Automatic annotation (TrEMBL), chain A:
Family per record: Belongs to the binding-protein-dependent transport system permease family. CysTW subfamily.
Pfam family, one: BPD_transp_1
Cellular location(s): Cell membrane
Membrane topology: Multi-pass membrane protein
Protein's name according to its UniProt entry: Spermidine/putrescine transport system permease protein
Main location, first listed in the record: membrane
Classification lineage: Bacteria, Pseudomonadati, Pseudomonadota, Gammaproteobacteria, Oceanospirillales
Keyword Cell membrane among UniProt keywords: yes
One of the record's GO cellular component terms: plasma membrane
UniProtKB/TrEMBL annotation, chain B:
Domain annotation ABC transmembrane type-1: ranges: 75-282
GO biological process: transmembrane transport
One GO CC term on file: plasma membrane
Cellular compartment(s): Cell membrane
Keyword Transferase found: no
Major subcellular location class: membrane
Name of the protein in its database record: Spermidine/putrescine transport system permease protein
Family named by the database record: Belongs to the binding-protein-dependent transport system permease family. CysTW subfamily.
PANTHER family with a match to the protein in the record: INNER MEMBRANE ABC TRANSPORTER PERMEASE PROTEIN YDCU-RELATED, INNER MEMBRANE ABC TRANSPORTER PERMEASE PROTEIN YDCU-RELATED-RELATED
Record keywords, A-Z: Cell membrane, Membrane, Transmembrane, Transmembrane helix, Transport
Length: 265, 295
């Protein structure tokens, strides 16, 4: 029994250390925003200030980059979500030879380093005289984000009861009606979460975007360039805003999930 | 295959589905990759010479790497460091994944999972940047260690590969935890209890019962982590120093500073081959198929 107690304590301790490790960087980054220092740090502490938020708000290039990111992410959503759904429908319907091969092919963008997705897209479109920019960024990101959407939709599709569809068909619904009224509503939650993930993936992508962005700059690329040149705590202010939005979204998601759970149970 | 689709969705929708998939797979996935490989075997020519007598296939672009000691060293260092990152991440992740799947109560596990996901909804750049602050020469970690009397003078964390490794483990840990968590969760807890009742110690229980069951998850996690580490540009660019360049940075320089895309394509293809090789190796070691990956 005694070794069991020690074991339990060790596990608790490890989990505690792990979560400290997970969150300390974010807390430090947040704190550095308020430090009245020219350079982002928390040591030494030079007094509290809010001036870096002001500096951020006046940063025109940042707002342009933010807008570019939103446009790119919206473009990716419009293309990657339907493609991902189609792949999931295809995989859940067909049987037989070649399916494993096609599945591997559809998965391959996720197993390819992001820089290579960017490079191959850049080279391919150069042949068609299209150079880097918002359009290519959308294309390159769609290449692998569609695979994420596919996986998420497929996970839900695998729990779908096909007899529901057959019932609709034998009751006289057309195939389109059965799809529209039965399958699509069933998939809706998965489609929404896939869309959210797709948006996030697009928004935070760096490795792929870097190669295909041309002269356009997304927010992530902008932050990276700021970190490497001209680093001020305004970057932290931006980071803090993004972290706050993220945590807010996570809390909303969790509250909603709990409410649904208590309604179902 | 088309007939199966048509039987379920009708011909209109079936054509749409096939069409979307075809455009994506052919236009975005297959052709660009093939063209990149094609590019890598051609010389870098002026636009006027393309298609002319000088435009012949050769291995010149690949010979460049093997003739350049610095690039070759960085190439192997990138592979080795990525293996190291993968190993470290696995060691850190496994206990967490096991705890979440088998020890914690469902409510606790749900909360922990949410806490895990939050940092990963935040930009990779920002996460890496926060390590940049922590590990800086005059940063809080050095201040803490000095204050506690562990060290006499600050450590230059960011001048070698150490900072890059720490940043990468942090950045990719979720890609390791989740597949392993999913795999362990599907293990029947009674099997663990049985092993314990029959006298197996904790280590033996993990080695003989839990780990064999979690193999596909471990394989997926290792593949994802290695691929992300070897292909990372952000982390080495932010946490590395000129002396600790990553292979992706060399590739980037060929494209945007050297202006030799053919050379860059050859380097990129080598990186891809390494990743494919690693995937094949992991699948062989863990004896799992492609179908088991990323489930």
């Amino acid at each position: 029994m005694k070794s069991e107690t020690i074991m339990r304590f060790a596990v608790r301790f490890y989990i505690g250390v792990f979560f400290v490790y997970l969150f300390t960087p974010l807390i430090i980054m947040g704190l550095a925003t308020f430090n009245d220092s020219r350079f982002p740090t928390v040591s030494p502490w030079k007094g509290a200030t809010l001036k870096w938020f002001e500096a951020l708000a006046q940063d025109g290039a940042m707002w342009t980059a933010l807008w570019t990111s939103v446009v790119v992410a919206a473009g990716v959503l419009v293309v990657a979500v339907p493609v991902g759904i189609c792949c999931a429908l295809f995989l859940s319907t067909v049987q037989g030879k070649g399916k494993t091969f096609l599945y591997s092919l559809m998965m391959s963008p996720l197993l390819t380093p992001g820089v290579i997705v960017g490079i191959s897209t850049l080279i391919f479109w150069k042949g068609l005289s299209v150079s880097g920019g918002v359009f290519l960024t959308v294309v390159a990101q769609t290449t692998f984000i569609a695979a994420y959407v596919m996986l998420m939709v497929l996970a839900r599709l695998q729990r779908f009861d096909r007899t529901l569809e057959n019932a609709a068909l034998s009751l006289g619904a057309t195939q389109w009606q059965a799809f529209r009224r039965i399958l699509l509503p069933y998939l809706k939650p998965a489609i929404f979460s896939a869309a959210a993930i797709a948006f996030l993936q697009s928004f935070e992508n760096y490795n792929t975007t870097l190669f295909v962005k041309g002269y356009d700059t997304t927010l992530t690329v902008y932050i990276a360039s700021k970190v490497r040149t001209g680093l001020t705590p305004a970057v932290n202010a931006l980071g803090l805003v993004m972290i706050s939005v993220t945590i807010l979204l996570a809390v909303i998601y969790e509250v909603k999930r709990r409410r649904e759970q208590s309604m179902n149970g | 295959m088309f007939s199966q689709l048509k039987a379920r969705f009708g011909s209109g929708l079936a054509v749409g589905i096939i069409g979307m998939i075809a455009i994506w797979l052919i236009g975005l996935v297959i052709l660009p990759q093939l063209l990149m490989v094609d590019y890598s075997f051609r010389p870098n020519l002026l636009p006027a010479d393309i298609g002319g007598p000088k435009d012949v296939y050769s291995l010149t672009n690949y010979e460049t790497l093997f003739g350049n000691h610095i690039h070759l060293k960085i190439f192997f260092k990138t592979i080795w460091s990525s293996v190291l990152v993968t190993g470290l991440t696995l060691v850190v992740s496994y206990p967490i994944a096991f705890y979440l799947a088998k020890v914690a109560t469902p409510q606790k596990a749900a909360l922990c999972l949410l806490l895990l996901i939050i940092p990963f909804w935040i930009n990779e750049i920002l996460r890496t940047f926060s390590w940049y602050i922590i590990l800086a020469y005059k940063g809080p970690l050095n201040a803490l260690l000095l204050g506690l009397g562990f060290i006499d003078r600050p450590i230059r964390f960011l001048s070698g590969d150490g900072g890059v490794l720490i940043g990468m483990v942090y950045a990719y840990i979720l890609f390791m935890i989740f597949p392993i968590y999913n795999a362990i969760e599907s293990l029947d807890t009674n099997q663990i209890k049985a092993a314990r009742n029959l006298g197996a110690g904790w280590i033996r229980t993990h080695w003989r019962v839990v780990i064999p069951h979690a193999k596909p998850g471990i394989a997926t996690g290792c593949i994802m982590t290695f691929m992300l580490a070897a292909g990372s540009y952000a982390v080495p660019a932010l946490l590395g120093s000129p002396g600790s360049r990553w292979f992706t940075q060399i590739i980037y320089n060929w494209f945007f500073e050297g202006g030799d895309w053919n050379q860059g394509a050859a380097y990129a293809f080598l990186l891809l081959i390494i990743c494919i090789g690693f995937i094949a190796l992991v699948m062989r070691i863990f004896k799992v198929g492609l179908g088991d990956i990323a489930k």
